Amino acid sequence: xxxxxxxxxxxxxxxxxxxxxxxxxxxxxxxxxxxxxxxxxxxxxxxxxxxxxxxxxxxxxxxxxxxxxxxxxxxxxxxxxxxxxxxxxxxxxxxxxxxxxxxxxxxxxxxxxxxxxxxxxxxxxxxxxxxxxxxxxxxxxxxxxxxxxxxxxxxxxxxxxxxxxxxxxxxxxxxxxxxxxxxxxxxxxxxxxxxxxxxxxxxxxxxxxxxxxxxxxxx
Length: 219
Fold this sequence. Notes:
Layout: H1 10-13, E1 24-26, E2 33-35, E3 48-50, H2 51-63, E4 68-74, H3 79-96, H4 102-109, E5 126-133, H5 149-152, H6 165-180, E6 184-186, E7 189-194, H7 198-204
Parallel strand pairs: 2-4
Antiparallel strand pairs: 1-3, 4-5, 5-7, 6-7
């Protein structure tokens, strides 16, 4: 697989943020997008994204072959939850690899979870999603959404070579629609796509991020 810039890379942190002030909008109102409740919170924050990201997601959904839908598992994530997730995964890796230096531990943690201060989900700029049929049946993508490198033997990487042809084809369908709509993928997670965040800016050559940390105000 080609070299991957991780979220922990200093290049990502150096990208300036000029928040454009777009609101968070509810993805459950989009056509051809199914919001799965597996990571739902009481306030429904998980089902929201910045308006510009949601608009592009709706465009991607219309680009899919007939009979397919985008199945969203999580959009916006509060900062406190990002911190909790990041620290829990770091602790898991530390326990399994007690000799790892802290900087290397942070780097390896960022394969699956962004450092909280970078967090595309915290900005309402990232979405975790997969493909499903019109009746809600999930397609084979090679791993479950949110599978870690350890539990998937690195099959969570978007370009992982050791997945089935069916899964590889489904990943191509997902990628084609989202890329055409302007989103970028985090290559360690086939399901993670974003627009307007620092990682997107670095990958596309934009002068800065459009979205910084967002606050969810509830329904």
